[in-house]
Each structure stands twice: as C-alpha cells, then as structure tokens.
Amino acid sequence: MDQLFQHLVNALIMGGTYALLGIGLTLIFGIMRIVNFTHGELYALGAYMMYFFATVLGLNFFVAIAFAIVAGMAMGSVIEFTLLRPKRGADIDTTMLLMIGAWIVMQNAEHLIWGGIAKSIPSPLPEAPLVIGPVSISWLRVMVLVVSVVLIAATYFLINRTKLGKAMRATFQDGGTAALMGVNVNAIYTTTFALGSGLGAAAGALLGPVFVVTPTMGDLASLKAFAIVILGGLGNITGAAIGGFMLAVAEEIGAGYISSGYRDAMGFLIIIIVLLFKPTGLFARSERIG
Amino acid sequence: MKRLLPYIAVAFFASVPLWLQDQYFLHTLVVTGIFVIAAMSLNLLLGYTGQLSLGHVAFFGIGAYVSALTSLGFSVEIFGLQITHEPWPAVIGVLFGTIVAGLCGYVIGKLAFRVRGAYFVIVTISFAEVVRLVSLNWVELTNGPLALPGIPPLTLGFEWTGYATLWGKAQNYYVVLATIVLAYILIKRLVNSPYGRAMIALRENETLAVSVGISVTKYLVLAAVLSGAMAGVAGGLYAHYIQIIDPMIFMFLNTVTMVIMVITGGKGTLAGPLVGGLIFGIAPVVLRSYVGPEVQWILYGLLMILIVFVLPQGIVPAIERWFTRKGGSASASKPAGLVLESSKGARS
Description:
The complex is a heterodimer of chains A (about 290) and B (about 350). By secondary structure, chain A is an all-alpha fold. Chain A has helices at about 1-30, 40-55, 60-85, 90-115, 140-160, 165-175, 175-180, 185-205, 215-230, 235-255, 265-275; strands spanning about 130, 135. Chain A has a single domain (about 1-120, about 135-275), classed as ABC transporter involved in vitamin B12 uptake, BtuC (Orthogonal Bundle), CATH 1.10.3470. In chain A, about 70% of the residues lie in helices and about 0% in strands. In chain A, strand 1 and strand 2 form a beta hairpin. In chain A, helix 1 runs antiparallel to helix 8 (about 185-205) and helix 2 (about 40-55) packs parallel to helix 4. Chain A is globular and about 60 Å long. Chain A starts with a helix and ends in a 13-residue tail after the last helix. Chain B starts with a helix and ends with a helix. The longest helix of chain B has 27 residues, at about 25-50. In chain B, helix 3 runs antiparallel to helix 4. Chain B has helices at about 5-20, 25-50, 55-70, 90-115, 115-135, 140, 170-190, 195-205, 205-210, 215-240, 250-265, 270-290, 295-310, 315-325, 330-335, 335-345, and strands at about 75-80, 80-85, 155-160, 160-165. The relative contact order of chain B is 0.17. In chain B, about 75% of the residues lie in helices and about 5% in strands. Chain B is mostly helical and about 350 residues long. Chain B has a single domain, classed as ABC transporter involved in vitamin B12 uptake, BtuC, CATH 1.10.3470. In chain B, the strands form two sheets. Chain B has a two-stranded antiparallel sheet with strand order 1-2. Chain B has a two-stranded antiparallel sheet with strand order 3-4. The interface between A and B is large, with 41 and 39 residues.
C-alpha cells in the first residue's frame, strides 16, 4: 500500500511535465492540424538550453528555465516561419514529411553540438528529500510539479481569458472570418506554434535536471506527447492535462507492477487502445461540423 | 527504348559482381538491395493506397527476428509452458518470417480501416515501438540488447541439384537481385490489375471509389498484407546475410530511410523506390569518407525538406515529365503512368 502511494506521488510529478508536453502538442497537432514530429526535439532543446544557461553559464536556476522556454519559442517561430508558412494549406502528409525532416536535422545537430555523452544538470535545491508519512519526494521534483502547474494554469488563462487566446481560437475555427475581423492570421499561426514549442521546451527544461540530457531524449517525448493528445482528444487543453497525468500513472503502475522495461511501452499501448475503441479521445466534446 | 530499360538495368546489375573488385562496395550493394525491397514494399502502401506507415521497420524487424529464431532454435517459457524449437533450415526461416510479417500486416491493415491519416501514422509508429521494446525486454527469446549472433546463411538447392550455402557476398547479391526482380514483377502485375486500380482509386478519391462499389477494407488489407510480407522477406534476407541482429534493427531511422527512398524516387511509381533506394543506399558510403554520421543525417533531413519543396512528386515522375515534354511520342506508350501523374498533379 505504501508502495502504491509512492508510485502515485511519482506519477503526479511526472504527470505535470507530461501535461505541459501534451498541452504544447495539442495546440499544434490538435488545433493547427500539424503532425509535429519536432515536438520532442523542442523538449530536448529546452533541456539543452537549461544545461547551457544553468550549468555552463551558471545563471540562476529559475532564470535558466525562463530562458530555455524563450529559446524553445524562438526555435518554434523559426520552424513555423521557414517550413510551415510557405506550405500553408498543403495536405497533412506534406507538412508531416517536412516535420520529419526537421526532426532529423535538429536531433543530429544536437548530437553534433553537444556530443553523444549524457549531460547532467546539478540542482541548487536541498538534497534531503521531503518526507510525508510513507512517501518521500526530492525537493527538485516538488519544484518541477509547482512550476508545471503554474505554466499549465497560465496557458489555460491565456487561451481562454485573453484577447490573444480569443484570436487564436477564432483563427483555427474559421481563418477567413477571423482575418475579416482584423485578426492577423499569419501572426497567430506563428504565435500558436511558438507557444506550443515553448511548452515542450519547458517540459524539457524541468525534466533535464531530474534525469540526464541526451540527444535522443526527444524521440520518446514526441511519441508520449502524441499519446497524451490522442488520449485527451485533439485540441482539448483540459483533456491533454488530464491525459498527461493518466499516462504518468499508467507508466508508473506498469513499471512498478509489470516490468520496468515496459515503462515506455505503456504510452504506445494507450495510443493503440484509445484509437481502436474511442478514436475521438476520452474527453472529446461533440464537435460541431460546418 | 523505354520498354527495354528494365532489361538493360537487370543485365547491368547482374554483371556487377563480375567486374567489381571492391568487396566492401559489393557488400554495400547487397544491403542497399535489401533496403530497396523494403522500400518497394513501403511504396505499395504509401504510393498506391496513400497510407503512410511509419512503423514499416517493424515488418522488416519481425521478418528478421522470426527468420533468425526459426533457423537458430529457441526455448522459452510462456505462462509456465515450456516451448522448445529445434533449428530449421534458413530458407524455412525466411518463409516463416514472411508469413508472420504478413500476418502483422493484416492486423495493421485492419487498423487502417478504423483510423486514417495522421492517426494511422501514429498507430504504426506505436506498433513498431512496442515490437522494439518487446525485442529489447524479452531476453529469454531474443537475447535482448546482447543480440542474436551466429545466424546461419541461406542454403539453397534441391536434392537433385545439391545444396549451396551462401557464404559469399556475390551469391547473396544474386539472391537479393533476383528477389528485387520478383518483387518488381509482382508489384507491376498487381498495380496493373483491377486490384491495383482499385487501390489507386481509393487513394485518389475514397468517397467516389466507395460509391462505385470498391471495398475499402478488402483492398487496404490486401495491400498491407503484401507490403508487410515483402518487408518480412527483406528482413529475413538481412538476418541471414548479416548473420547477427539486435533490437537496433527497429530503429526509427531505418523507417525514415525507407520513407526517404520512396518519396525521393517518386511514390506511386514502379521505378521510384529503386532509384531512391540506390541513391540513399550508396550515398552514405560515399559521404562517410567526408563527414561524420551526424552531418550525414543532417544532410538527409535537409534533402527531405528540399524534396518536399522542389520535387514533391519525386525524381522518377520529374524525369518522365521531362522526357514527355521532349519527345511527344513517349506519352502514347505509357497511358497508365500519365493518367496517374496528371491526377496527382491536379491534387497538389
């Protein structure tokens, strides 16, 4: 029983970053309909930027996180501007191939720049864990959860309560009408892609210090993000948040009670099962078409 | 001239081991040939039914593992039941690998009926990753990351001809070449048959195709089974040629290589995967002496992006168009290709 509590707490902490990853992708894949294979590389970019700012330059830990997010948003804008803008309106296969190409380029560029050896980012937080009853958590992981929750709340507020968020929702519901109402549609496309990329980078920057940073860390992150988005329903931000936590619980339980080797298989099994039985995702609202 | 081109190509490639001195280059050609078979099988799905399978390496890897395990023998315990298998000849292994990969293709084809487009892509990736994780973790069967060494080479022949074990590169080269020719003929006949036309109709306009009575499930499943089985053959040949396989065979980059081969050469064309496969099979060897693997992959990625922008149909259709424009008579000799091409042009 105590072990179960520990698993659930671990899952809660991983779930926060998974939710960030999933919300970032649901904006791009769910709303913009771009099968974004670079999402995991933006996650890796976030982690490498965290390493660069916090460890190489020695900046404050939290400042480094902010910078890593900004770097992710900048990279996202570049991808949108150079690859997706010229191919706006192209079919989904075309943009997907572009994104696969960009993914390969980014991953190998990371390999080239940083080398294949895993990098670790020391954290300034106390080493001794926080102990509550039978459960113990490192302070670093507590910080990760708090920052993720703040970022999730901020994104939710941005999309649902601000004028920019309204413009985004309008653009992807009906771009033509939004443009007539004076929304700069091109700018909104870039902003949304940058926002999604920034969230992916945030997840990487937060998990970088928890694990180690390697050039291939993005591969699984991409696929897990797709699992979360599918689980939560395309474009559903609340669904992606819940989906992130659900994937974390499934992985933690799978690793704890089946075999730790199959931890990463959980996400893929979830994708296959959800798509077979409820392809619209678990939390889909009925969509109005037309 | 155009009609003779395939025969000239086969004659040329058949002569290669006779004059090529460089054994390493011959090895490269054998591996390239194996990947060409895999790319041809991917083209059947991607080019003719329009379904992008990004888990194609799963069929290849399953073919390789099943074939290797059949010919090596194994002993595993499943739910308390001890299953022991004695080693069988390598040819039977390839046959089994093909059948199992084809069965997996059947399952994926059934899935394709339920999920399309981006979802199908993600399901196929997930399938490949699950298979990879099983190959990595089921150590009792697959030896996990320690790899399966000592896979016997293929032995061909009959009682009345005597048996030959294919240790040499040239022998394997001819087996691969023969398989490519067979696969080419099979795909050509399929594509020009009513089945192939139905598949193309589904790709071009599914609603219209269904309305004239084309069964979506039937044709998608057929294409997926054939595609999976053919990739399984390639995997089996790979296992018995390289003689050692490990879970790295399921690397996503292997799928990416196949996809790049198909889209560069021209998806939905018979010669596309052959041309793309030759370029991307040999390019790494040529590049290797100048740049490291990372730079090489960066170039691959950039090339992929460039092709989407510059030659979205691929090399083969571009050359065909060029020839058609030059000599107007060429268009009359190949009506099917032309129809295909113009309808694709209209779509993009």
